[in-house]
User: Fold these one by one.
Assistant:
Number 1:
Amino acid sequence: MTFQEFKNRIKVTTPAKDCPISRTLELLSGKWTSRVIYELEKYDQIRFGELKKNLNGITNTMLSNTLKNLEEKGIVIRTQYNEIPPHVEYSLSDSGKAMLSIYYEIGKWGETYLS
Amino acid sequence: MTFQEFKNRIKVTTPAKDCPISRTLELLSGKWTSRVIYELEKYDQIRFGELKKNLNGITNTMLSNTLKNLEEKGIVIRTQYNEIPPHVEYSLSDSGKAMLSIYYEIGKWGETYLS
């Protein structure tokens, strides 16, 4: 799909349940969802506590709900290491990593319009 | 900024208040914000009632708060027509229209990973 095809296509009203954009926006619509994914883009894997430290204002419950939800959707991978002491690391699946191109466009927009 | 420069840059932890991505994510973080902008991308201008009809589940209060907030941020333009009967139309500013490239990436992601 080229950008021109895309521009023509959005003029046609597609029911939200069939539209890949509406469905992705729905998936990203939680208060912290897109920010948690963006933090995960920066690391190969990261622990809960470190992640929380990077997300100013998030509570334990909000972060664990967001991670669980993204795990169910196949975007986040939770790996448990049975070492001593046992610990858990979070990382992005291939679909989560592929969201980096969305953040790239967001970054370019922010640089242009929020400076 | 090329995609490669972007990839290198996000590894460096930038405080959220200086990071154009974090600031844009913050701006888009309301429950309906990104979906309202996406609806507005489809029209040159649109009335409140039509917009509401396209956003399944939104209440009058949620829609008017989202629009007011986006107007304050310079993304949405509210135009009042003093005809009889008077009416109001909503449209996107140039910065709002420029978000179309973000939705393009979101659409490509959704086509690939939600099909």
Number 2:
Amino acid sequence: MRLTSYTDFALRALIFTGAARETVTIATISAAYGISKEHLRKVVNQLAHLGYLITTQGRHGGLTLGKPAEKINLRAVVEAFETSQLAECFDKDTNTCPIDGMCKLKHALRNAQQSFLKELENYHLSDLVKNPQLQVFVRQRTG
Amino acid sequence: MRLTSYTDFALRALIFTGAARETVTIATISAAYGISKEHLRKVVNQLAHLGYLITTQGRHGGLTLGKPAEKINLRAVVEAFETSQLAECFDKDTNTCPIDGMCKLKHALRNAQQSFLKELENYHLSDLVKNPQLQVFVRQRTG
């Protein structure tokens, strides 16, 4: 069970931008984490599309949070990015398993997935960016 | 977030064998689900190694449950098969994320993963094989 790197990078981009408290660039985030700029650009575009980031153009342009960190819920971000299904039977268009409909496993897995998401609901971006070491790390890369 | 097909097939093999209540073969399970015999053989070997299945050789050989379905817990099976880590930072040997140790995301994800597994703990194989339609499906393929 693994989150996609797409979701992982989205969360990291939000954490960096949230901890920075000033405009940051894709190049800075990419260099700070050692992750592909191209991959990050796609993630940032979706975050902007969803209202989590605001992108501004120009010499002093870059990324800022699109809403307060206290309003960015971890469950909502993970649900928006994590589009893969937990098991084959969760996608009726591609499912080939013949016991779908007579198998209680799907029910059990769905409940487990809901418990996972419910737990994430307890966290907001503001909870993730408070650490002083993290703020130093970000400041050193944006200064 | 997706379970590996390895885990999915392990659960399906247990469901089929548990619903059959008689010796079944890898060929029968493979044909019933339309999944690769080779892939299934690896899964069955691990299930046998873990004590969930007993394999017997010979003309009437095949697979039976290694313990009562009431004793086969869904969490235990998923934990045994699902070796992939939820995010890069969960594996300290391969992690490259520089904010590991100062980032609370890992803590949030770990709690969510525990909630997922805790929910699965409520289910045993016996809960998954009771459906009469499932038993008809299995009987038609083993008879």
